[in-house]
Amino acid sequence: MPVLPDTLNPTSEAYAENRAAMLAQVAAHDAELAKVLGGGGPAYVERHRKRGKMLARERVEALLDPGSPFLEINPLTAYGTQFPIGAAMVLGIGVVEGVECVVIANDPTVRGGASNPLTMKKALRGMEIARENRMPLVNLVESGGADLPSQSDTFIPGGKSFRDITALSADGIPTIAVVFGNSTAGGAYTPGMSDYIVMIKERSKVFLGGPPLVKMATGEESDDESLGGAEMHARVSGLADYFAVDEMDGIRLGRQVIRRLNHRKRGPGPRGAGLPPRYDQEQLIGIPSADPKIPFDPRQVIARIVDDSDFDEFKPLYGTSLVTGFAELHGYPIGILANHRGVLFNEESEKAAQFIQLANQIDTPLVFLQNTTGYMVGKEFERRGIIKDGAKMINAVTNSRVPHLTINMAASYGAGNYGMCGRSYGPRFLFTWPNAKTAVMGPQQLAGVLSIVARQSAASMGKPFDEDADEVMRRTVEDQIERESLAMFMSGKLYDDGIIDPRDTRTVLGMCLSAIDNDAPAGTRGYGVFRM
Questions:
Q1: Is 123:83 a contact under the CB 8 Å cutoff?
Q2: Within 372-422, where are the H helices?
Q3: Could you read off the pLDDT of 59-94 as tens digits, one per residue?
Q4: C-alpha–C-alpha distance, residues 288 and 294, integer Å
Q5: Which of 102, 147, 347, 440 has a CA between 20 and 30 Å from the CA of residue 193?
Q6: In sequence order, what DSSP letters do the residues of 339-356 get, joined into one string?
Q7: Helix, strand, coil shares, percent, the chain, to 5
Q8: SS3 track for 54-117
């Protein structure tokens, strides 16, 4: 059996430095995550509790099966923007009555749960996950509707969210809404377009226009309950399918709906749940280099995440800057592509294209472990056809139909991000480690390119080159690119599904593979034209 050897030295100075650097980055991430867990802040949380209401995360916890995990998606949405971190929404995957579901919960302690542009983007990502992996969607609704100051960036995406809910239903993917409070104006369509609707006595308020708007539009006097309360919708309009007496009863009825969905799952691979890795997953914290310029062997990562550390390496002596091979993870068969020394050469590109084709032939999901500076540049490699070979790899990734999972372990630069299945190439899930960086190129390289162009431009016009201004420009650009390439900045823009502790990688990938397995993976048997 091809068990990977353990070549890691946890007593070395390099390991200690790597571990200390990663722990500091994990701590920085956790500090930002604590802000999200605090909702809208103590005053708003206390006001919400005084109204006898559960917090958004408490509702999620009560909905899920006791003791089951919750894989939160994009918790740092809106980090580094003008909007509240977390975007007033909790999104994730959890198990309800034994069924894996996508759960979306508005956080009413953050601006009344109002939706800003990033809230909508996060909700749309949740519905995309539900659609791609054929998972029921549960909305725990309490929102004041659109964040009006940003309505110009919210209104149009909001329409797509309603479209996506109905499209899920048409695809046979159940949608359930439990309404805990306001669901007004356009937000009324979130429950209105769901398959099943639970409303709560004297809590749910669902109407296209509230009493003030109705008064302005028609002159009619009304109150919340008679206009859109739960009892009216249960007895008169018929919008409510289930009438709950309180929040916990609403959650009970939501769970009851899911229990009756007749949902069936294929289960793990032919060898069962799989054995744990032979090596300590705790050591993943010290494997990535503290200095991003120093490569590390991804086999030591693979050895700590796959079943029994068993890895069948494909073409181990060819294109050695890319490690490829087959393994199992929690019993699910996978193919792995992992960057070794960062740069993708001609041989690595061809090797990757062939491997991706093979995985599609046997319907095996692919896991991409990114640590790449991109495709090799230079006269020799251009003459050898690096563009053609890189295009083969990107073609293979683009047209592959098996599910893809991506982990950015350290760096994801340039077209290497594309070839290694970055966000724009549609991986089912993409997570980053806290040390990860993503950009068109490194800060020094980018600033250097701009400097060379400026220097050449000055020379062509016969003007003197301002060295002092160039130095200021380089420092400014380097600082900007460094800041904008960091994991939390990218996560704030939803360019990944979240930042994870390296030690949780096996668990996260296992949950993702389980979600994917709601539908049988099926590879493509045909590709576009490969430029030979």
A1: no
A2: 379-384, 386-399, 414-419
A3: 999 999 999 999 999 999 999 999 999 999 999 999
A4: 9
A5: 147
A6: ESSSEE-HHHHHHHHHHH
A7: 45, 20, 35
A8: CCHHHHHHHHCCCCCCEEECCCCCCCCCCCCCCCCEEEEEEEECCEEEEEEEECCCCHHHCECH
